[in-house]
Structures are given as C-alpha cells and as structure tokens.
Amino acid sequence: MKKRIGLRDITALQPGTVLWDAMVTGFGARRQTSEAVTYFVFYRANGRQRWQTIGRHGSPWIPDTARAEARRLLGEVASGDDPAASKQERRKAVTIAELCDQYYADALAGRVLKRSGTPKKPSTLAGDRIKFERHIKPLVGRIAVAAFTAQDAERLLHEIAEGKGEGDGGKGCATRALGLLGAVFQYGIGRGLRSDNPVHGTARFACGRRERRLSDAEYGMLGEGLRKAKKQGFWPPAIAAAHLIALTGWRKGEALGLQWGEVDLVRRVAVLGITKTGRSVRPLSQAACEVLEAQPRGPNALVFAGARGGSGAEIFKRQFKRIARLGGLPPDITAHTLRHAFVSVGADLDFSDLTIGALVGHRGRSMTSRYAHGADAVLLAAADRIADHIESLMGRHTARRRAA
After folding, report:
1. Tens of pLDDT along 27-78?
2. Cβ–Cβ < 8 Å for 1, 47
3. What residues does CATH 1.10.150.130 cover in the chain?
4. Contact 323, 239 (CB under 8 A)
C-alpha cells in the first residue's frame, strides 16, 4: 500500500505491516511485533538491494523528518555512494576507547542504568573513569570494537593483574575492569556496534570479600581515636560521619551523601533515595540520632558537607586514616570494615539475618515502604541494642539514653 505517510498512519500501523510512502520512492515505515515503528529507506546500489534504517518513530523522527532523511540518503545513492555500506564501515572503525568515552558520557547524563533501574552514582562513575584511563584504554583502547575477541578479553585480564597499564593492577582490579568492559560492550550491542559480547564467558579472578571485623579491643581503639581526633581539632564532620557509620553499619557513601531531607529524627528513620540497592528505609538508633542532632544545619542539604558545600568524601578518607592511627588501629581497618563489624555485632547478639539486613540495607532486605514515615518498634529496639553495645565497646556511656 502506497500513500503519503502521516502521523495518523503511523498510529494506525498494525504489527507485522509495512507502509510505503507515495512521495519518496523507497521510503517507508514498518511495525514488527512490538509497539515500535521504524522508518527506513530501500534502494539498490552496486547491484545490491539495501535496507537502511533511519530510526524509530519519536523525537527526532516523525514522518516529515524521516522523509527528509530518506531524500538525503537517496541523494547519496545517486552520487554513487552506498549509505548502508558506509555505516557498516564506520561501525567497524569505532575503537574501544571511543566506545568507552560514549558510554561514560551517557552514564554521566544518567542514560546508563543499573539493574535496579537507577543511574550510576557519581562515586561509581569516578571509579569507572579510573578503570578506563588507567587500564582499559591504554591496553586495548586502539582495538576496533568489531575486532575485539574473547582472547583479547582474557589477555587484558592477565595484563591488568600483572600491573600493566598506567596504574596499580592486581587480580581484584583486573576482575572489576573486565566487568566494566563487559557493560561497555553490552552498551555497544544496544547501539548496533556488535551482536555479541566478547567479554561474557571469560573466567575471572575471584574478588575476595572483605569480611574483616573489629575485635572488642579494636572498638576501644576506635573510640580512643575519635576522642583524640576531637581534642586535636580534626574536621568535625569526619569524626561524626565515622561515628555514625560505626553505629549504623551504613556504607561510607550513604553516610557522606545523607541529606537533611532524608532524615526524620522524631520518628527515628532515614529514607535514603539513592543507595547501592536502590531506595532504602533505615531505622535509626537513639545513639545515631544523637550524632545527627549534634550536626549544624547550614544552607547545604548534606548533613556532612565539605568545606565548600559539596561532599567531603576525599577529606573523610584522609581523616579516617588519621583517626585510626590515633587509636592505634591496624592499617587494614577502613570505614567499610565498620559495616562488617556492625553486622558481626548484630549476629553476636543473636539477631536474625533478616533483621540485620533491614538495618544496614542489604539487597532485598530493606524495610518495606509502609515504614516510610516511621520505623518498626522491633527494628528500632534492635538498632538501639546493637548501637548501645558498640558505644559501650568504644568506651562511651549509654546510661542517659537507657533512662530516657
């Protein structure tokens, strides 16, 4: 059927049908089994029939703009060019480095989503950029996307593990970099640059999970470090953030990214909009509430704002190391260790995995949405008991809270 294609025709187009335009020979629209309608141009070049996809219906492609693009492509054919073949050649010429740059730009704009359906966090993107610039691009950046093989993926893994590239390597770094490259190729598949992912199926090094916890004595050292840091005039938000992480088991990024609008100290609950596992509702112990209540409320939305109003992540990292040294803690103790330690204390106190998971926001174990305006009394009691025990180990007194 041939007629001048208009918006009404696109809306009425049935699945599995093709509509040809009466004004531009070879221009048409087709709807397959989905709701999507695709514009195309059909032509013959160098003795071969070609279908050149223009794009899906929607901005910028509507019948008029797609028709104009069809005219332009047919003009190239009349000049002796083959647009479809040229497009294939351009795809073959795209390098790994260029695809990484495209992926990163779209991720920054929030157009690359995680499995949870949310964009990557700035801290994750910062880590991605390091992997791109120090390992992936220096070692395989010049290889064409279409030419990259599973053997190249395996070679990259071992080269990073051996320390090649422009930064520190290691097996864990190699595994994470290859995982990111797999995501980049998946992104490339969505843009028609490949039909397969050469990274899939490549055996990787096991990333050892950091299960280090604090002993009772090390909790005492942490408390001593926090007290000394306060006396020596350390950056107050760093001291408070470290204290909060110890009392809640939150991830470092969750604590440093906490905003006042996410906290309800009366109902003792925090609703974190962006976490590793998506939106998460967390009960707050009375001890944690006291830490938050002591923080000044300035014009910045962040509870632990940096000196210039932004996140104090870099300052916190340096200051936490100094706090740990002041207390005499071993160098392998990090802010993330406090999360594992909190979970371990909860287990020592015989709380279930489900309860502990709800307190720290483990995947699939966050509090349900019905707690958005208040926390369950059982979970609040669990949060209090764990936090009070940790406070006691750190040499802090909890009698006033018990009496309240």
Report:
1. 999 998 878 899 999 998 877 888 888 988 987 899 999 999 999 999 988 8
2. no
3. 94-190
4. yes
CA triple 230-233-239, angle to 5 deg: 45
Q: Which fold has domain 94-190?
A: DNA polymerase; domain 1 (1.10.150)
C-beta separation of 373 from 269 below 8 A: yes
Question: What would the pLDDT profile of 77-106 be if each residue is shown by its tens digit?
Answer: 888 888 776 666 655 678 999 999 999 999
Whether 31 contacts 14, CB under 8 Å: yes
Q: How many residues appear in the chain?
A: 404
52 strand-pairing partners: 41
Tokens 């969750």 belong to which residue? Answer: 254
Q: pLDDT-based confidence at 342, cuts 50/70/90? A: very high
As assigned by CATH, the class of the 216-403 domain is mainly alpha
pLDDT value of position 272? 86
So what's the architecture of 2-82 in CATH? Answer: 2-Layer Sandwich (3.30)
Q: CB atoms < 10 A from the CB of 381, how many?
A: 13
Instruction: Give the integer Cα–Cα distance in Å for 262 and 342.
Output: 22
